[in-house]
Amino acid sequence: MSGVSDNRRPANPWPPVQTEQPEIHPKAPGPGTKLQMHYAECFGCGEVDNGLHMRSTVGEAGVVFSKFPVTRAHQGAPGLAHGGLLACAFDEALGSTVGNLLRRPAVTGKLETDFLRPVPVGTTLFIAARVDGVAGRKIYASADGHLDSADGPVAVRARGLFIQVGLEHFTTHGDPEALQKFTQQPTRRAEDWDINP
Ligand SMILES: CCCCCCCC/C=C\CCCCCCCC(=O)SCCNC(=O)CCNC(=O)[C@H](O)C(C)(C)COP(=O)(O)OP(=O)(O)OC[C@H]1O[C@@H](n2cnc3c(N)ncnc32)[C@H](O)[C@@H]1OP(=O)(O)O
């Protein structure tokens, strides 16, 4: 995405620094692969009550498609999705795209969202996300969220900076046991990831 080309929302250059083309990891899931949830307790893709229950599929040309079914549990204004939860959906979609395609553990450093149209309860947001460029540990990704179909009107756009981290980020600040369970899954073996930032 080159930026939001709406007069009301002038686009800043994106990525904001010089980057290299992202290299899809040789063991990245290929086009057509339905991505499994990355962690059962994840609010975005896990089995959490009233979570976002997002599901993602790898598309062609480095695009990952995610769906966020908006329910009454996700309201801000009556009948409309809460903007913070929409931002959460994009954090998940972008993070999943970076993690699965580059196979580099990374966390969100910055996330910006443009809310272009209301997202009603009962709709599904179809999110198309891609990695735009890499500069050392900095990974730039962006996404468009379409209402109710892959080519529906764009309701939300997001751009994120993800920072590659070593696994010690999760053991030092998070839950070492949870990380161990995570890496025991067949598709999450540490040797299949690029884990040296
Ligand atoms: C074998 C297993 C593998 C596991 C892999 C799992 C993948 C699974 C697949 C898929 C799942 C993904 C789905 C998840 C989706 C949700 C993701 C989230 O919600 S993440 C939680 C929220 N984010 C945080 O909690 C970060 C908190 N912040 C930090 O920990 C630090 O600030 C951190 C690591 C981001 C950076 O700290 P520093 O000390 O390491 O590095 P410094 O030097 O500060 O930054 C590095 C570079 O980035 C720039 N930078 C950092 N933050 C920036 C910002 N906000 N704006 C602009 N630039 C920034 C800096 O200016 C620097 O740039 P210069 O190298 O000097 O050019």
TrEMBL record:
Protein's UniProt keywords contain Nucleotide-binding: no
Stretch list, region Disordered: 1-31, 176-197
Membrane topology classification: Peripheral membrane protein
UniProt-listed CDD domains: PaaI_thioesterase
Pfam families per record: 4HBT
Reaction(s) catalysed by this chain's protein: decanoyl-CoA + H2O = decanoate + CoA + H(+); octanoyl-CoA + H2O = octanoate + CoA + H(+); dodecanoyl-CoA + H2O = dodecanoate + CoA + H(+); hexadecanoyl-CoA + H2O = hexadecanoate + CoA + H(+)
Enzyme Commission number(s) from the entry: 3.1.2.2
UniProt domain Thioesterase: residue ranges: 79-143
InterPro entries in UniProt: HotDog_dom_sf, THEM4/THEM5_acyl-CoA_thioest, Thioestr_dom
Location(s) in or outside the cell: Cell projection, Ruffle membrane; Cytoplasm; Membrane
Protein name: Acyl-coenzyme A thioesterase THEM4
Taxonomic lineage of the native organism: Bacteria, Bacillati, Actinomycetota, Actinomycetes, Pseudonocardiales
